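S2.1 Query sequence (Peptidase M20 dimerisation domain-containing protein)
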Amino acid sequence: SFTEINVNRSALREFDGLLLRKVFPKIFSSSLVQHELVGNYSQLFRIPGSEPDLEPYMLLAHIDVVPADEADGWDAPPFSAQELNGFIYGRGTIDNKQSVMGILQASEYLLERGYTPRRSFYIGLGHDEEVNGLYGAANIVKLLKSQGVKLQYVLDEGLAVLDGIINGLDGPAALIGISEKGQATVKLSVSSAPGHSSMLPRESSIGILASAVNRLEENLMPRLFGYGPERSTFEHLAHKVKIFICRVLERINNTNAFVRTTTAVTMFNSGVKINIIPSYAEVFVNFRIHSAQTLQEVLELVKSDERVKVELVNGFDPLPISSYDEQAFGFQIIKKMVQSMFPQLTVAPGKTSDAFLLNTDTCESLVIFGTDMVCAETEND
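Output structure tokens follow.
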């Protein structure tokens, strides 16, 4: 997927007709399974359970990937699925085809053996998640709401077993996501009189905007550690942490996101000719918003120089924090499954930075974890 309106439709059709329906015939032909296409390319399955009074859950994954170019340093062509030294190389092998294939393969396996679950469940495979899911996930939500469906929990891609990521943590830990950061894409722009490089102004549009960007990168968003779900993460991990202070986390790229809203300058556009002072410059900045902060609070902190125009391109507040106590069915069943497969691990709640489009009107609880263990979860329930 390139943009919300520019997706590879021919590849999506081939993935459906030439791959999924041939590799997983049972899930498409079983009289037990209800299947429909949503938004032309997203897949929605319902597998009814033997006890219809039990609230259903949903397994989510997405079909699309972000663009990739072999010139970016790939060891194998990014769409070749080439196997090297026991690993499959390809865009989407981690984000998020492993979930798509894991869910469908587990379901196919169980259907072939005549299995019927006690609790009904849904499978949602979005086709445009990488560009905000407006035609895939959003339409799945609308459909479920129109049918009066209320989900017990949703299992989506996200956190995993982490080893060596958190500084000072003794051994690996499994983090199960209970929320997601908010997100904002903000455009900063400067307009000024054009000029020539032989008679340059004191400050150019590029210079003014570069200073604004430098201020953003130099002045990090406020430290909010302890005001979101990360507090519970480290309470669960405390017995395994050799050294832990907030300043240690924020100095490391991998863990700075625990502490605050992150700021990433991603696109800078200006100029048309090497000897012309451009009249306009723009930059796009992506923020991943901490659970204790709002989108509006981030926008207020971005404003500084009156010559720099600040525009919100798109964004949303952090998601509500799902329950993870002993009565939280979704969290506890995933925790139990992880511990049965990796008994040496400590399991803790966490949060992710990925965008997600299932709202709280449809879903009681969001559980975010790698779904290559789905078969065990389906059999247990």
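Residues 355-361, 371-381 have pLDDT under 50 and may be disordered. The longest strand covers residues 182-191.
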